[in-house]
Amino acid sequence: MKFDRINRRIFLKSSAIIGAGLATPTIFTSGSRAQGFCNEPTGANVVLGFNCPQTGPYAEEGKDQLKAYELAVKHLNGEGDGGMLNTFKGSVLKGNGILGKKVTFVTGDTQTKSDAARASATRMIERDGAIMISGGSSSGVAVAVQSLCQDTGIIFMSGLTHSNDTTGKDKKRNGFRHFFNAYMSGEAIAPVIGEAYGKNRRAYHLTADYTWGWTQEESIKNATEKLGWETVAAVRTPLGSADYSQYLTPVLNSGADVLILNHYGNDMVNSLRQAVQFGLRDKQANGKNFEIVVPLFSELMAQGAGDAIKGIYGTANWDWKLDNEGTKAFTKSFGEAYGTPPSQAAQTGYVQALLYANACEMAGTFNPAGVVEALEGFEFDGLGNGPTLYRAEDHQCFKPVLVVQGKQDPADKFDLLQVVKEVPAEQVSYDASIFGGELGPVNTAC
Amino acid sequence: MDEFVLQLLNGLDKGGAYALIALGLTLVFGTLGVVNFAHGALFMIGAFCAVVFSRLIQLETVTIDPEKLTPWGSPMEIRTPLVQAWFGDFGAFLVQYSVPLSLLLAIPVMLIVGLVMERGLIRFFYKRTHAEQILVTFGLAIVIQEIIKASFGANPIPVNAPSALSGSADVGAWLGLGQGIFYPWWRLAYLAFAAVVVGLVIAFLQFTTYGMVVRAGMEDRQTVGFLGIDIQRRFTVVFAIAAVVAGLAGVMYTPIVSPSYSMGMDFLVLSFVVVVVGGMGSVSGAVLAGFLLGILQSFASMNEVKNILPGIDQVIIYLVAVVVLLTMPRGLMGRKGVMEK
């Protein structure tokens, strides 16, 4: 190319064209600023963004959750059998979308990584115009996306996140959590394992070395020490270790008689199976049978761990075998659609989508300010967990927590966990201020 | 003392896995001069041979039982393993011993994978730089990994050891150290397997004429060529052997760590450190360094050691590598002239 041929006129012309091109997005942005709030739906549709791990260590949980979101969208639009829409008490949903607009959705892959999750959420908000983001199967991801949604004026209905920090020190006015947390797990499980294993126990913790592991270790330690248990050691293991033999060996002669595995997903599958291989469950220590506890359980992890979970105690947010109308309706819809019972990851996602839609209907607007007001202090029932409160102070749901145990003699491949106890919400409630953090003001601007 | 014995066993076990993978890596490097970053993927393919085999053997017939209902009200599917239905007790035995039997399946599969990989891709990169070899083999590893992930999902898939080998052995009684030192049978089996395979490969190279020619080719490819021997074909065979060794190591590893798509990469970096510490291209160096680093890593993870030096278990291998390379730049048993110009 010969640059000497570019004369002043051509240069000016092309500059003007390029300039106009560059300015175009700004014109649209300034147009959107003129709206009352970020991504206000103006057409016949409203877009929800579902941000789940579709690859990475928690992919199986994410995929299950995504199926539930699809089901929720169908039911909101009046398609299918309606699922929990038929049992939801406190609902003003009409089955004709949200505020008369048909619900559509876009999905993103968090890869169980905070940066990837933020990138996919940003894409859904900026390009697809999502008005609400839901999903996540990791506390690291949930905390990161929650703060992004706060900054961009979008509502975040978190999926599976169990760290105390999500509605504790990292809570945000635009973010809401239906799932329970590590503190509640500790309060629920401690009396049960105290009853089963005695008050005079010595516990050894192996903990996944990141935010969720730390808060779970702290919560379980506090709860079991209140029982009278002694904590012998708490050893941190790097995320994604495959071989835990070097961490399990010191447990054998540490004087401990209980091993508490603060691991999740693949890590839990490997550490639990290996602990069983090392004969920990056949061992005697301090004159007692050695026991293993996995404070946070999921059905999908139980499938991965195989026989190793038999008899092991843990806690769960929800189980498809619960005897209530909402659970039955959801299990039926999900089972007919996908051929398996839904996991707790699926249920929490489904419920969050319904709760968001209902809050918009109650508020009569998609404006986050109205949605937040409708959800704060909202009491509802019939969504599978019994009477539930969305606490205004920290946007945490309070409902009964399940203590579950790996089934000794499963009737079929769906029947892996049994519910030992439903611990009432009052017993796992706490003062909203103990984990610090500030909700701050609601943000509605892009 | 108990913990010392157990950590020693852990170290030997881990070392066995390192040695098996590093052995293949260094064989390929020594003969073909190729730095094969897809070697970890071969280990993973082996592990998935066990998954496929145990799934095949557990293939079920599905009948619908209209009497029994699923939780959502449709008729329940009743599943019976085919082999058990056909062969009775022998079928049950096959299901039980699916992992050891997978070794038989893995040998032909890994041979084919190894031959295809060498003939189909790697031979075009013999004369390229190491950087280009690393790029292409690393790319290949990612492709294999993604294929496995797309086919089997991202969750680890549990594969069980035969129930006769899934408990623990009373190692303390064997060693006369009293009661209470138990070690999983399967890990002991893995250690024995590693020892046998390492012994066989070294014996093959040292004591067979075929192996002798291969070794001669490693020293001076041209001269062996002048003698009228098709050394290239022998090297292809060596590549296939390396693939089989990695694959078998993967099969045997499945009851210890549930196979997942990322397991190859997890081992790869460590295995390269083992090769470098042992000496590039030295088979016995790789074996020695594998066991040495495995044992050191285990001892570094004892709580007594970590209390004094927190985090030492994470870095010990790299610290050793630094020290070895500073004092013995060719590695423990490295020879002059390898990777030196």
Features:
heterodimer; A: 446 residues; alpha/beta; Rossmann fold; 2 domains; five-stranded parallel beta sheet; 17 strands; B: 341 residues; mainly alpha; two-stranded antiparallel sheet; two-stranded antiparallel ribbon; 4 strands; cell membrane (chain B); transport (chain B); BCAA_transport_permease (chain B); ABC_transp_permease (chain B)
How would you summarize what this structure contains?
Chain A: Residues 47-408 form the Leucine-binding protein domain. Chain A has 446 residues and is of the alpha/beta class.
* DSSP summary, beta strand count of chain B: 4
Average pLDDT over all residues of chain A: 89
Give Rg of chain B in angstroms: 22 Å
Widest sheet: strand ordering of chain A: 7-6-8-11-12-16-17
Sheet with the most strands, sense and barrel status of chain B: 2 strands, antiparallel
Order of the strands making up the biggest sheet of chain B: 1-2
Total individual domains of chain A: 2
Shape of chain A: globular
By CATH, the superfamily of the largest domain in chain A comes out as Response regulator
Keywords (chain B): Amino-acid transport, Cell membrane, Membrane, Transmembrane, Transmembrane helix, Transport
InterPro entries (chain B): ABC_transp_permease, BCAA_transport_permease
Organism (chain B): Nitratireductor thuwali
Main location (chain B): membrane
